[in-house]
């Protein structure tokens, strides 16, 4: 298996805008979607998929993750871009997707918020928000 490549957020945005088979899947928890915000990809003509990799509050891995991908209409030809807070859970989700028969899995590098800055705040150093890409509160 070739592994799950890291793709910068802006390159992910461009893929969503240009590639009909590209889909962005936010694998954070419902609490994060509600309180932190979501990538807003409406401009690309696509709809964001919300499929948690781990289930809040237990944070157990979502045993039906691959099934949720299939139920969303995704296929082995789909190009799946996984995003989480900082790129760790999305990498695991991409690896699970590849193992489940979705070979074109990508990890959005630094995720939605990226690493904390010197003051411990996220969203300033790297990631979707720091790159100035559209996002919204739920």
TrEMBL record:
Statement: the UniProt record of this protein carries the keyword Transferase: yes
Rhodanese domain span: 18-119
Entry keyword annotation includes Translocase: no
PROSITE patterns xref list: RHODANESE_3
Protein name listed in UniProt: Rhodanese-related sulfurtransferase
Keyword list, A-Z: Transferase
Molecular function per GO: transferase activity
Matches recorded under SUPFAM superfamilies: Rhodanese/Cell cycle control phosphatase
Pfam families found in the cross-reference section: Rhodanese
């Amino acid at each position: 298996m070739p592994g799950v490549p890291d793709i910068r957020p802006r390159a992910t945005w461009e893929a969503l805008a240009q590639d009909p088979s590209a889909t962005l899947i936010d694998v954070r928890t419902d609490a994060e979607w509600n309180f932190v915000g979501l990538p807003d990809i409406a401009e690309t003509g696509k709809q964001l998929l919300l499929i948690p990799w781990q289930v809040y509050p237990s944070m157990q891995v979502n045993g039906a993750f691959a099934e949720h991908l299939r139920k969303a209409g995704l296929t082995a030809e789909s190009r799946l871009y996984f995003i989480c807070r900082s790129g760790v859970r999305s990498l695991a989700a991409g690896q699970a997707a590849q193992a489940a028969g979705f070979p074109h899995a990508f990890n959005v590098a630094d995720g939605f918020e990226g690493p904390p800055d010197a003051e411990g705040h996220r969203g300033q150093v790297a990631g979707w928000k720091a790159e100035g890409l559209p996002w919204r509160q739920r």
